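Re: duplicated header lines in exported structure tokens

Our pipeline writes sequence and tokens for each protein into one text file. With two proteins the header for the second block appears twice in some exports. Here is an export where it did not happen, for reference. First protein block:
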Amino acid sequence: MISMANFGLWWIRWNGSNYESRMSGSLNEFRELGFGYAVVLGQPAHIQYTGDAETDAYNLSEYLSEHMNMPYYVTIPFFTPSKTPRGNITGSFEGSYLGKMDQCIYWIIRP
């Protein structure tokens, strides 16, 4: 029998000073439901946007490294709260998370 990985959605938000979980249960309860991997999501209005992609990526990675002690995947917040793309989306994405990708790749997927 082939074993399948079980992915579950884990919602987070920026509360003005740091990230917090939007989930009603704990990470242990999440695991007890049978999820082996978390897909971390946050709506554009609930993700920190300072205008400095490196700072934003750092703060998100700090939260994840401190609170997610299981394998996870995280989306890269590409849009600002006003639903416009972060940084220059033509060419090399200067000023966006994608432009900082080489500096932040370690937190995108944690094995």
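Second protein block, exported in the same file:
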Amino acid sequence: MDSINPLFLKSDIKAMNNSKMINQVSPSQTHDQFANALKQAINKVNEAQNVSDQKTNALVNGEINDLHEVMIAAQKASVTLQTATQVQSKAIEAYKEVMRMQL
């Protein structure tokens, strides 16, 4: 096994620190990025729900004969909604934990 060269690690750490200084992001940019990511995730959940509803209505109206396709769409919508709910719960827990911290 090769030994770790401490000089190599030191230069890597310096390079990482220099790149962090160059790529610093303002709090408002971070806020905007987080808000956009959250909006995209919510839109994907909504889209999955809409697809499921459309396929269910098409099955009821006799436009689709494949029950499996409808059930798969319904399960995808269900899983995405459950995942979004779990993420929401974890985010609320994390927020509460931060608020309990003493500075």
